[in-house]
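idk why but the lab printer keeps eating my pages so im just putting this in chat instead. protein + flavin-adenine dinucleotide:
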Amino acid sequence: MSTHLAEWLRERRIAFSENAPIAPHLYFRIGGTVSMLVSPASAEQMAGVLAELASAPPGAGHEGPLPFVVIGGGSNIAFGDDPTRAAVVLAPAPSQVGARILGDGVLQVESGMRNQPFLAWCAANGAGGLEFLSGIPGTLGGAAAVNAGAFGRSMSDVLLGADIVDEAGAVRAVDASYFAFRYRDSRFKLGRQTVLALHLRFDPCEGKSIAKKSRENLEYRLKRHPSYRLASAGCFFKNPLLNGVKTSAGKIIEECGLKKTTCGDLAVAEEHANFLLNRGRGSFADLRRLEEKIRECVAARTGIVLEREVIYISPRGEKY
Ligand SMILES: Cc1cc2nc3c(=O)[nH]c(=O)nc-3n(C[C@H](O)[C@H](O)[C@H](O)COP(=O)(O)OP(=O)(O)OC[C@H]3O[C@@H](n4cnc5c(N)ncnc54)[C@H](O)[C@@H]3O)c2cc1C
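predcted complex ->
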Protein backbone atom coordinates (compact mmCIF):
# COMPACT_ATOMS: atom_id res chain seq x y z
CA MET A 1 0.00 0.00 0.00
CA SER A 2 2.72 2.44 0.98
CA THR A 3 5.65 0.77 -0.80
CA HIS A 4 6.22 3.71 -3.10
CA LEU A 5 6.29 6.15 -0.18
CA ALA A 6 8.55 3.84 1.85
CA GLU A 7 11.03 3.67 -1.04
CA TRP A 8 10.92 7.42 -1.46
CA LEU A 9 11.59 8.00 2.25
CA ARG A 10 14.36 5.40 2.36
CA GLU A 11 16.15 6.99 -0.60
CA ARG A 12 16.17 10.33 1.23
CA ARG A 13 17.06 8.84 4.61
CA ILE A 14 13.94 10.22 6.23
CA ALA A 15 13.03 8.28 9.39
CA PHE A 16 9.75 6.34 9.29
CA SER A 17 8.11 3.21 10.61
CA GLU A 18 5.18 1.18 9.30
CA ASN A 19 2.14 -0.03 11.27
CA ALA A 20 3.37 2.10 14.13
CA PRO A 21 1.54 2.70 17.43
CA ILE A 22 0.39 6.31 17.60
CA ALA A 23 -0.57 6.55 21.30
CA PRO A 24 2.99 7.26 22.55
CA HIS A 25 2.99 10.43 20.43
CA LEU A 26 -0.26 11.79 21.87
CA TYR A 27 -0.89 13.47 25.23
CA PHE A 28 -4.14 11.51 25.52
CA ARG A 29 -2.33 8.20 24.82
CA ILE A 30 -5.36 7.02 22.85
CA GLY A 31 -5.10 5.34 19.46
CA GLY A 32 -4.10 2.10 17.71
CA THR A 33 -1.63 1.91 14.86
CA VAL A 34 -1.16 4.10 11.79
CA SER A 35 0.03 2.83 8.39
CA MET A 36 3.11 4.98 8.50
CA LEU A 37 4.73 7.33 10.99
CA VAL A 38 7.13 9.77 9.36
CA SER A 39 9.63 11.91 11.30
CA PRO A 40 11.20 14.53 9.04
CA ALA A 41 14.33 16.12 10.51
CA SER A 42 13.65 19.70 9.39
CA ALA A 43 10.89 21.99 8.12
CA GLU A 44 12.36 21.70 4.59
CA GLN A 45 12.23 17.93 4.81
CA MET A 46 8.64 18.08 6.07
CA ALA A 47 7.69 20.27 3.10
CA GLY A 48 9.26 17.67 0.78
CA VAL A 49 7.36 14.81 2.46
CA LEU A 50 4.08 16.71 2.21
CA ALA A 51 4.65 17.46 -1.48
CA GLU A 52 5.33 13.77 -2.07
CA LEU A 53 2.20 12.72 -0.15
CA ALA A 54 0.12 15.22 -2.14
CA SER A 55 1.33 13.79 -5.43
CA ALA A 56 1.43 10.09 -4.45
CA PRO A 57 -0.07 7.62 -6.94
CA PRO A 58 -3.20 5.67 -5.94
CA GLY A 59 -2.50 2.78 -3.58
CA ALA A 60 -3.22 -0.87 -4.23
CA GLY A 61 -6.78 -2.20 -3.93
CA HIS A 62 -8.27 1.04 -5.30
CA GLU A 63 -8.07 2.56 -1.85
CA GLY A 64 -6.73 5.80 -3.24
CA PRO A 65 -3.66 7.72 -2.11
CA LEU A 66 -2.63 7.35 1.51
CA PRO A 67 -4.25 10.17 3.49
CA PHE A 68 -1.97 12.06 5.86
CA VAL A 69 -2.23 13.93 9.13
CA VAL A 70 0.38 16.33 10.50
CA ILE A 71 0.88 16.25 14.25
CA GLY A 72 2.64 18.93 16.28
CA GLY A 73 2.77 18.17 19.99
CA GLY A 74 -0.19 15.75 19.76
CA SER A 75 -1.90 17.52 22.67
CA ASN A 76 -5.34 18.02 21.14
CA ILE A 77 -5.99 14.82 19.24
CA ALA A 78 -7.07 11.16 19.62
CA PHE A 79 -7.02 8.27 17.13
CA GLY A 80 -9.37 5.28 16.94
CA ASP A 81 -8.52 1.92 18.51
CA ASP A 82 -8.49 0.13 15.13
CA PRO A 83 -5.65 0.64 12.64
CA THR A 84 -5.81 4.02 10.89
CA ARG A 85 -5.01 4.01 7.19
CA ALA A 86 -2.91 7.17 7.11
CA ALA A 87 0.60 8.52 7.14
CA VAL A 88 1.19 10.61 10.23
CA VAL A 89 3.87 13.26 9.81
CA LEU A 90 5.43 14.47 13.07
CA ALA A 91 6.33 18.16 12.79
CA PRO A 92 10.05 18.46 13.61
CA ALA A 93 11.22 20.66 16.46
CA PRO A 94 13.88 23.03 15.04
CA SER A 95 17.37 21.74 15.76
CA GLN A 96 18.76 25.29 16.04
CA VAL A 97 16.99 28.48 17.10
CA GLY A 98 13.58 28.23 15.43
CA ALA A 99 12.61 31.90 15.65
CA ARG A 100 13.96 35.26 14.46
CA ILE A 101 12.97 38.91 14.58
CA LEU A 102 11.95 40.12 11.12
CA GLY A 103 11.67 43.78 12.10
CA ASP A 104 9.43 46.26 13.86
CA GLY A 105 7.33 44.11 16.18
CA VAL A 106 7.21 41.11 13.82
CA LEU A 107 8.88 37.73 14.31
CA GLN A 108 9.01 34.47 12.39
CA VAL A 109 8.89 31.06 14.07
CA GLU A 110 8.99 27.52 12.70
CA SER A 111 5.73 25.63 13.18
CA GLY A 112 7.42 22.68 14.92
CA MET A 113 8.81 24.83 17.74
CA ARG A 114 7.30 24.00 21.16
CA ASN A 115 5.53 26.83 22.99
CA GLN A 116 7.67 26.79 26.15
CA PRO A 117 11.11 27.00 24.46
CA PHE A 118 9.59 29.65 22.20
CA LEU A 119 8.64 31.74 25.24
CA ALA A 120 12.19 31.38 26.59
CA TRP A 121 13.40 32.71 23.23
CA CYS A 122 10.83 35.56 23.47
CA ALA A 123 12.18 36.53 26.89
CA ALA A 124 15.77 36.47 25.59
CA ASN A 125 14.80 38.62 22.60
CA GLY A 126 12.38 41.09 24.17
CA ALA A 127 9.32 39.82 22.28
CA GLY A 128 6.32 40.36 24.57
CA GLY A 129 2.58 39.79 24.26
CA LEU A 130 2.77 36.04 23.61
CA GLU A 131 2.90 34.89 27.24
CA PHE A 132 -0.70 33.62 27.02
CA LEU A 133 0.86 30.53 25.39
CA SER A 134 2.69 29.64 28.59
CA GLY A 135 1.54 26.24 29.81
CA ILE A 136 -0.36 25.34 26.63
CA PRO A 137 1.36 22.13 25.51
CA GLY A 138 2.31 21.58 21.89
CA THR A 139 3.79 23.50 18.99
CA LEU A 140 3.27 26.91 17.43
CA GLY A 141 1.86 25.23 14.29
CA GLY A 142 -0.69 23.25 16.29
CA ALA A 143 -1.59 26.36 18.29
CA ALA A 144 -2.24 28.29 15.07
CA ALA A 145 -4.28 25.42 13.56
CA VAL A 146 -6.65 25.22 16.52
CA ASN A 147 -6.46 28.94 17.42
CA ALA A 148 -5.25 28.02 20.89
CA GLY A 149 -5.55 30.55 23.64
CA ALA A 150 -5.79 31.38 27.32
CA PHE A 151 -6.16 34.45 29.54
CA GLY A 152 -8.45 36.13 27.01
CA ARG A 153 -5.99 35.98 24.11
CA SER A 154 -5.54 33.52 21.29
CA MET A 155 -3.38 32.98 18.22
CA SER A 156 -5.78 34.95 16.03
CA ASP A 157 -4.80 38.08 18.02
CA VAL A 158 -1.12 37.79 17.11
CA LEU A 159 -0.83 35.92 13.82
CA LEU A 160 -0.05 38.08 10.80
CA GLY A 161 0.62 35.42 8.19
CA ALA A 162 2.36 32.12 7.48
CA ASP A 163 4.26 30.00 5.00
CA ILE A 164 2.17 26.95 4.30
CA VAL A 165 2.12 23.77 2.22
CA ASP A 166 -1.19 23.70 0.37
CA GLU A 167 -3.26 20.68 -0.71
CA ALA A 168 -1.33 20.41 -3.96
CA GLY A 169 1.94 20.21 -2.02
CA ALA A 170 3.09 23.72 -2.99
CA VAL A 171 4.74 26.09 -0.50
CA ARG A 172 3.18 29.55 -0.43
CA ALA A 173 2.73 32.60 1.77
CA VAL A 174 -0.71 33.49 3.15
CA ASP A 175 -2.00 36.25 5.39
CA ALA A 176 -4.00 35.91 8.60
CA SER A 177 -7.38 36.11 6.83
CA TYR A 178 -6.56 32.84 5.05
CA PHE A 179 -6.75 31.02 8.40
CA ALA A 180 -10.50 31.85 8.75
CA PHE A 181 -10.03 31.90 12.53
CA ARG A 182 -12.95 31.20 14.83
CA TYR A 183 -13.08 30.25 18.50
CA ARG A 184 -10.60 27.31 18.85
CA ASP A 185 -10.83 26.77 15.12
CA SER A 186 -9.23 27.63 11.78
CA ARG A 187 -9.29 26.15 8.30
CA PHE A 188 -6.18 24.12 9.25
CA LYS A 189 -7.80 22.34 12.20
CA LEU A 190 -9.75 19.82 10.13
CA GLY A 191 -8.04 20.64 6.83
CA ARG A 192 -5.17 19.08 4.88
CA GLN A 193 -2.88 22.08 4.60
CA THR A 194 0.18 22.55 6.79
CA VAL A 195 1.75 25.56 8.43
CA LEU A 196 5.53 25.61 7.98
CA ALA A 197 6.38 28.96 9.59
CA LEU A 198 4.34 31.68 11.29
CA HIS A 199 4.70 35.45 11.33
CA LEU A 200 3.60 36.83 14.68
CA ARG A 201 3.14 40.33 16.02
CA PHE A 202 4.90 41.11 19.31
CA ASP A 203 5.25 44.03 21.71
CA PRO A 204 8.89 45.01 22.32
CA CYS A 205 9.31 44.51 26.04
CA GLU A 206 11.90 43.89 28.74
CA GLY A 207 12.95 40.25 28.83
CA LYS A 208 12.60 40.03 32.61
CA SER A 209 8.94 40.99 32.56
CA ILE A 210 8.22 38.48 29.75
CA ALA A 211 9.85 35.69 31.77
CA LYS A 212 7.91 36.76 34.89
CA LYS A 213 4.55 36.84 33.08
CA SER A 214 5.21 33.44 31.44
CA ARG A 215 6.11 31.95 34.82
CA GLU A 216 3.03 33.43 36.51
CA ASN A 217 0.71 32.16 33.78
CA LEU A 218 2.22 28.70 34.04
CA GLU A 219 1.92 28.65 37.83
CA TYR A 220 -1.70 29.83 37.66
CA ARG A 221 -2.55 26.92 35.36
CA LEU A 222 -0.59 24.30 37.31
CA LYS A 223 -2.60 25.21 40.43
CA ARG A 224 -5.98 24.87 38.72
CA HIS A 225 -5.54 22.02 36.23
CA PRO A 226 -4.98 18.32 36.84
CA SER A 227 -1.31 17.38 36.87
CA TYR A 228 0.22 17.72 33.40
CA ARG A 229 1.72 14.28 33.93
CA LEU A 230 -1.77 12.76 33.60
CA ALA A 231 -2.88 11.83 30.09
CA SER A 232 -5.50 14.23 28.70
CA ALA A 233 -6.03 16.63 25.82
CA GLY A 234 -6.77 19.66 27.98
CA CYS A 235 -10.29 21.07 27.78
CA PHE A 236 -12.36 18.49 25.97
CA PHE A 237 -15.45 20.58 25.10
CA LYS A 238 -15.62 24.15 23.82
CA ASN A 239 -17.02 26.74 26.20
CA PRO A 240 -20.56 27.38 24.91
CA LEU A 241 -22.07 30.82 24.30
CA LEU A 242 -25.05 31.35 26.60
CA ASN A 243 -27.02 34.53 25.93
CA GLY A 244 -23.96 35.85 24.12
CA VAL A 245 -21.61 35.11 27.05
CA LYS A 246 -18.85 32.47 26.81
CA THR A 247 -19.55 30.08 29.70
CA SER A 248 -17.20 27.52 31.24
CA ALA A 249 -18.03 24.02 29.97
CA GLY A 250 -16.21 22.66 33.04
CA LYS A 251 -18.57 24.53 35.36
CA ILE A 252 -21.63 23.27 33.47
CA ILE A 253 -20.39 19.66 33.60
CA GLU A 254 -19.63 20.03 37.30
CA GLU A 255 -23.06 21.50 38.04
CA CYS A 256 -24.64 18.51 36.32
CA GLY A 257 -22.95 16.34 38.96
CA LEU A 258 -20.65 14.64 36.47
CA LYS A 259 -17.31 15.10 38.24
CA LYS A 260 -15.52 11.77 38.68
CA THR A 261 -17.82 10.06 36.14
CA THR A 262 -15.95 7.20 34.47
CA CYS A 263 -16.19 4.95 31.42
CA GLY A 264 -13.62 2.19 31.47
CA ASP A 265 -10.30 3.88 32.21
CA LEU A 266 -11.51 7.34 31.14
CA ALA A 267 -12.61 9.70 33.90
CA VAL A 268 -13.84 13.27 34.36
CA ALA A 269 -11.06 15.01 36.33
CA GLU A 270 -11.79 16.01 39.90
CA GLU A 271 -9.82 19.27 39.62
CA HIS A 272 -11.46 20.50 36.39
CA ALA A 273 -14.57 18.82 34.96
CA ASN A 274 -13.71 19.72 31.35
CA PHE A 275 -10.53 17.61 31.53
CA LEU A 276 -11.09 13.94 30.65
CA LEU A 277 -8.25 11.80 31.95
CA ASN A 278 -6.94 8.56 30.54
CA ARG A 279 -5.97 6.70 33.70
CA GLY A 280 -3.74 4.27 31.85
CA ARG A 281 -5.58 1.81 29.65
CA GLY A 282 -8.32 4.08 28.31
CA SER A 283 -9.47 3.25 24.80
CA PHE A 284 -11.07 5.36 22.10
CA ALA A 285 -14.28 3.39 22.69
CA ASP A 286 -14.22 4.43 26.38
CA LEU A 287 -13.62 8.03 25.36
CA ARG A 288 -16.58 8.05 22.96
CA ARG A 289 -18.84 6.55 25.62
CA LEU A 290 -17.78 9.12 28.20
CA GLU A 291 -18.17 11.97 25.70
CA GLU A 292 -21.72 10.85 24.85
CA LYS A 293 -22.63 10.31 28.48
CA ILE A 294 -21.57 13.86 29.36
CA ARG A 295 -23.21 15.40 26.29
CA GLU A 296 -26.52 13.58 26.85
CA CYS A 297 -26.64 14.34 30.56
CA VAL A 298 -25.79 18.03 30.10
CA ALA A 299 -28.33 18.36 27.26
CA ALA A 300 -31.05 16.66 29.32
CA ARG A 301 -30.45 18.85 32.36
CA THR A 302 -29.67 22.21 30.77
CA GLY A 303 -30.62 22.06 27.09
CA ILE A 304 -27.01 22.94 26.20
CA VAL A 305 -25.37 20.76 23.53
CA LEU A 306 -21.64 20.70 24.17
CA GLU A 307 -19.33 20.76 21.16
CA ARG A 308 -16.10 18.79 21.16
CA GLU A 309 -12.85 20.79 21.00
CA VAL A 310 -10.53 17.77 20.69
CA ILE A 311 -9.86 16.35 17.19
CA TYR A 312 -10.55 12.71 16.27
CA ILE A 313 -9.04 10.78 13.37
CA SER A 314 -11.21 8.22 11.56
CA PRO A 315 -9.90 4.79 10.41
CA ARG A 316 -9.63 6.33 6.92
CA GLY A 317 -7.37 9.12 8.17
CA GLU A 318 -10.00 11.87 8.11
CA LYS A 319 -10.11 14.49 10.84
CA TYR A 320 -13.48 15.13 12.47
C1 LIG B 1 -2.79 19.80 29.86
C2 LIG B 1 -3.32 20.51 28.66
C3 LIG B 1 -3.69 21.86 28.74
C4 LIG B 1 -4.18 22.53 27.62
N1 LIG B 1 -4.55 23.85 27.73
C5 LIG B 1 -5.00 24.52 26.66
C6 LIG B 1 -5.35 25.91 26.72
O1 LIG B 1 -5.25 26.55 27.76
N2 LIG B 1 -5.80 26.52 25.61
C7 LIG B 1 -5.91 25.86 24.42
O2 LIG B 1 -6.31 26.49 23.43
N3 LIG B 1 -5.58 24.55 24.31
C8 LIG B 1 -5.13 23.87 25.38
N4 LIG B 1 -4.79 22.55 25.28
C9 LIG B 1 -4.97 21.84 24.01
C10 LIG B 1 -3.69 21.84 23.12
O3 LIG B 1 -2.54 21.87 23.92
C11 LIG B 1 -3.66 23.04 22.19
O4 LIG B 1 -4.77 22.99 21.35
C12 LIG B 1 -2.36 23.05 21.37
O5 LIG B 1 -2.21 24.34 20.82
C13 LIG B 1 -2.33 22.02 20.26
O6 LIG B 1 -1.02 22.04 19.69
P1 LIG B 1 -0.31 20.70 19.20
O7 LIG B 1 0.95 21.10 18.53
O8 LIG B 1 -0.22 19.73 20.30
O9 LIG B 1 -1.38 20.24 18.12
P2 LIG B 1 -1.76 18.72 17.75
O10 LIG B 1 -2.57 18.12 18.84
O11 LIG B 1 -0.55 18.00 17.29
O12 LIG B 1 -2.70 18.97 16.49
C14 LIG B 1 -3.90 19.67 16.63
C15 LIG B 1 -4.44 20.01 15.24
O13 LIG B 1 -3.54 20.91 14.60
C16 LIG B 1 -3.08 20.34 13.38
N5 LIG B 1 -1.68 20.74 13.23
C17 LIG B 1 -0.65 20.48 14.06
N6 LIG B 1 0.47 21.05 13.57
C18 LIG B 1 0.12 21.66 12.41
C19 LIG B 1 0.81 22.40 11.41
N7 LIG B 1 2.11 22.65 11.51
N8 LIG B 1 0.12 22.87 10.35
C20 LIG B 1 -1.22 22.65 10.23
N9 LIG B 1 -1.93 21.93 11.12
C21 LIG B 1 -1.27 21.46 12.19
C22 LIG B 1 -3.26 18.83 13.53
O14 LIG B 1 -3.35 18.19 12.29
C23 LIG B 1 -4.57 18.80 14.31
O15 LIG B 1 -5.63 19.02 13.43
C24 LIG B 1 -4.31 21.85 26.40
C25 LIG B 1 -3.91 20.51 26.31
C26 LIG B 1 -3.41 19.85 27.42
C27 LIG B 1 -2.99 18.41 27.29
